[in-house]
Amino acid sequence: MIPACPLAALPRGEALRIETDPPIAVFHTEDGELYAVDDTCTHQDASLADGWLEGCEVECPLHASRFDLRTGRVDAPPAKLPVRTHQVVVQDETVYVVPSDLPPNLPPGVRTGSA
Amino acid sequence: MKSVAIVGASLAGLSAARALRAQGFGGRLTIVGAEPHRPYDRPPLSKEFLAGQMTTTDLALEGDGEDLGAEWRLGVAATGLERGRSLRIALADGSAVEADGVVIATGAVARTLGGDLAGVHTLRTIEDAAALRADLGAARRLVVIGAGFVGAEVACVARTLGLDVTIVEAAPAPFARALGPEMGTALAALHEDHGVRLICGAAVRGLTGEGRVDGVLLDDGRRLDADVVLVGIGARPVVEWLDGSGVLLGDGVVCDAGGATSVPGVVAVGDCAAWFDPALGAHLRVEHWTGAARRPATAAQTLLSGGAAVPDTLAPPYLWSDQYGMRVQFAGHTLPGDEVSVEEGDLASRRFLAVYRREGRMVAVLGVDQPRSFTRWRRRVNEPAGAR
Ligand SMILES: Cc1cc2nc3c(=O)[nH]c(=O)nc-3n(C[C@H](O)[C@H](O)[C@H](O)COP(=O)(O)OP(=O)(O)OC[C@H]3O[C@@H](n4cnc5c(N)ncnc54)[C@H](O)[C@@H]3O)c2cc1C
Ligand code: FES
């Protein structure tokens, strides 16, 4: 489990990027849900934490593909692959991420430090 | 509606096919495309593909295993549209496709200067990009005619390859048509930082060379040496094939805000189409990726509903461009006389966000390497004055 931030530091409607490898974005929706996905868009090197959060979806800041934060599913091109999702746990007012052990869908040209 | 024919098998055509199927159209779907290729993505042609970082396979627009249940007629151009009991599209090989509904998605082609000197390129297709890439590999000096986005991106790739690059622009400022003179000049600074020579306010009189280009002659008498010339003077909509069809043409196919043309059962999308934009009160042909990808959903609805669902607003046009690793993003539409102010960052750092206003209303926003705040400002384009 990776500590992300105190819950109070991530207001509703906001997102936070954690510098894991690859980086993870944590979102706090307007409805109060917390979700975590890989921060890097599956199309190109853009940070989804910089994107636009609407409901349970984040719109990529570059070419506007939308990812469903619950499933990682993408709605429409240019991105074609889903983004990997991670589990979020809140304990003692702190947000933690449980990183997925599935392989990420990183865009061409972006690699993890270990791979 | 039992059958639909889509003419043009690129981004807008493919997006229309997807939208029709997603909206429940189960009838016969025919997609006609003049190019022999399956739909491919053009933006990388002046970026990663030209730089050799992307292959032909990476350009595919269709997903692995994607099947729209369509009949593809590739490598054959439509030559006419006739109206009878159904709509009839004549093809260059003498055959025809009949359908109850037609989506026009024939895009645009690069404007040229004429002449047939080797070493003179335009950039629109995968073949154009491959030929330009091969030529740049063996060249020392590139002259780009026209300071638009495609030309600027090619300049950028050529600089990375180590070429000496000059951009010539007839207008007093680069990128002026899209960004206005002030921000056009600001963006030009980025190119000058990277050693590109920029000559504005200079019209090109002609090209020199025998068989192969060796220079560009300017109206003021100057001559620029060149091994390769890229002509980046814009694109024109491909609509000649619609002459005499009754489809109203202006700067492209004239459409309402739902994509309907003047002919019932015919809609138009993408670079060939000039939709009525209620925010602007005028028809505007938009030549950007996002419009060609997103508006077909509206056009499909128009077609399937017989025009019952014309939206009263359109998402503002949006474009991006990658230059020297910087993300340039622009949303909205600017006209001469708009007021421009830098709201975040500053011009000197080459990282900034600028807002365009007309009578107090925000009509456009430009971000240079500001994806996060750009995404937020972009939502506010065309909001009524005084909101927030
Ligand atoms: C080099 C380059 C870089 C770009 N970069 C960007 C960018 O960074 N950001 C951005 O927002 N936009 C960019 N664009 C613009 C974007 O690619 C276009 O907006 C988009 O391709 C438009 O799609 P379309 O389907 O309407 O037209 P097109 O892509 O032009 O496709 C039209 C298709 O119709 C076919 N056709 C034409 N006539 C006929 C006929 N009579 N019968 C059958 N088929 C026909 C053509 O062969 C073509 O395949 C770029 C364009 C180019 C060329
Ligand atoms: S980088 Fe996210 S959609 Fe292109």
From TrEMBL, chain A:
InterPro entries membership: Rieske_2Fe-2S (IPR017941), Rieske_2Fe-2S_sf (IPR036922)
One MF term in the entry's GO annotations: monooxygenase activity
Keywords: 2Fe-2S, Dioxygenase, Iron, Iron-sulfur, Metal-binding, Oxidoreductase
E.C. no: 1.14.12.19
Domain of life of the native organism: Bacteria
Pfam families with a match to the protein in the record: Rieske
Gene3D superfamilies in the cross-refs: Rieske [2Fe-2S] iron-sulphur domain
Domain Rieske, chain residue ranges per copy: 2-97
Protein name (record): Bifunctional 3-phenylpropionate/cinnamic acid dioxygenase ferredoxin subunit
UniProtKB/TrEMBL annotation, chain B:
Cofactor annotation: FAD
Domain Reductase C-terminal: from-to ranges: 318-381
MF term (GO), any: oxidoreductase activity, acting on NAD(P)H
Keyword vocabulary terms for this entry: FAD, Flavoprotein, Oxidoreductase
Any one annotated GO CC term: cytoplasm
UniProt KW Flavoprotein keyword: yes
SUPFAM superfamilies on file: FAD/NAD(P)-binding domain, FAD/NAD-linked reductases, dimerisation (C-terminal) domain
Domain FAD/NAD(P)-binding, chain residue ranges per copy: 3-293
Name of the protein: Oxidoreductase
Source organism per UniProt: Microbispora hainanensis
